[in-house]
Write a structure and sequence with these properties.
Layout (H helix, E strand, L loop, with lengths): L28 H11 L16 H28 L4 H27 L4 E2 L1 H12 L6 H14 L15 H13 L10 H7 L1 H4 L5 H5 L1 H20 L2 H28 L19 H6 L6 H6 L15 H11 L3 E2 L6 H7 L4
Antiparallel strand pairs: 1-2
Helix pairs in contact: 1-5, 2-11, 3-4, 3-5, 3-11, 5-7, 6-11, 10-11
Bound molecules: zinc ion (2 copies).
Length: 349
């Protein structure tokens, strides 16, 4: 089967061809090995994680992480509704924050780190990893390790967040949806063991471990920054409070649920254009809202592709930004599936 075609001046040798139409990527053997995990078909690697029981403190932190943005967003809407305490500045802060931190997840955590779908300078890597960390979805190493595990076992036993591993019937479907959306967060250990198994290559990237080490400060910064901006621009404590609600908690709420919807909705609702060994779907609504990640069946069929919206009409903001970075020369070795690889996996029925 054919391989991807780096669409620019290649600074590295051609990659060996793998049987899923995607190449192993990056030049180091260690990275190739980790990517083999990431691209492996379900059960290609024997045995699942014997997850240790999730510590209580972990569950408590996750509970706060899930509930606090919801409360903040509801509070912001309530203040807007009852007291008119909203304007374009606060909404703009939320919108820009959602776009930027969302791209940090999709470009930085997902396409650049987890799947190594393009190469770039380390300063650019760290910049995108930092922007993604502000989304408060965990530090990059843990996020990538969980996501590689998802690809390894996708919709099979061992998948951290499949909606399809519950009992039959309506109740099973509801349970499955909740588990895939946010329930799984309470059951998954984000510890070093997972990172060592699934992302040893990423650990070696200079500076990448600092996001895990100083994650608490990233949380504080992510929520404090919009409060400071709101306070300074509006010149009041009310401005700081509304900045915190809209640009902080409200923005985190949006980004979280959009990301989680890729795990839940995009494994249930949408079209399956390619054979992919799982139940991933292309969903146009989340293609747009999640900056391209909703073309999730495309992604599972071609995990290392830097482009998820493979058709011209499949909106993919992340791909547009990657192309822009390529145009200015700070990104290279972009992986894309060849026409032949796409034709081979195309579903006809
Ligand atoms: Zn998936
Ligand atoms: Zn992925």
């Amino acid at each position: 089967m054919s391989t991807v075609t780096p669409d620019n001046k290649s600074r590295r040798k051609a990659r060996p061809v793998k049987d899923d139409g995607n190449p192993a990527v990056s030049s180091e053997q260690a990275i190739d090995d980790a990517l083999a995990h990431a691209d492996a078909k379900p059960h290609a690697i024997q045995g699942h994680e014997d997850d240790d029981p999730t510590p209580f403190i972990h569950k408590l932190i996750v509970l706060i992480t899930v509930v606090a943005p919801l409360v903040g967003f509801a509070w912001a809407i309530n203040l807007a509704w009852q007291a008119g305490a909203v304007n374009y500045f606060y909404l703009g802060m939320m919108g820009i924050g959602w776009l930027l931190t969302g791209l940090g997840i999709t470009i930085g955590f997902h396409r650049m780190l987890t799947h190594r779908s393009f190469d770039t300078y380390n300063w650019n890597r760290l910049m995108w990893a930092g922007i993604g960390t502000l989304a408060l979805e965990g530090p990059p190493l843990a996020w990538c390790a969980v996501h590689r595990k998802h690809h390894q076992h996708s919709d099979q036993e061992g998948d951290p967040h499949s909606p399809h591993l519950h009992e039959e019937g309506v109740l099973g479907a509801i349970k499955g949806f909740w588990h895939a959306h946010a329930g799984w967060l309470f059951t998954q250990n984000w510890d070093d063991k997972l990172v060592n198994k699934y992302a040893p290559d990423l650990k070696k990237i200079k500076g990448m471990q600092s996001f895990s080490k100083y994650y608490l400060y990233w949380i504080i910064g992510s929520l404090a920054l919009p409060a400071v901006i709101g306070g300074l621009v509006m010149g009041s404590w009310t401005g700081a409070w509304l900045g915190f609600l809209w640009g902080g908690l409200g923005r985190v709420f949006l980004t979280h649920h959009v990301t989680w919807s890729v795990n839940s909705i995009c494994h249930i609702f949408g079209k399956r254009d390619f054979h992919s060994d799982d139940d991933s779907r292309n969903n146009a609504i989340f293609g747009i809202l999640s900056h391209g990640e909703g073309w999730h069946n495309n992604h599972h069929a071609f995990p290392t592709s830097a482009r998820h919206g493979l058709q011209w009409w499949q909106w993919d903001t992340s791909w547009m930004v990657i192309r822009l970075m390529k145009a200015v020369g700070i990104v290279w070795n972009i992986r894309l599936p060849s026409e032949k690889a796409m034709a081979a996996k195309k579903r006809t029925a």
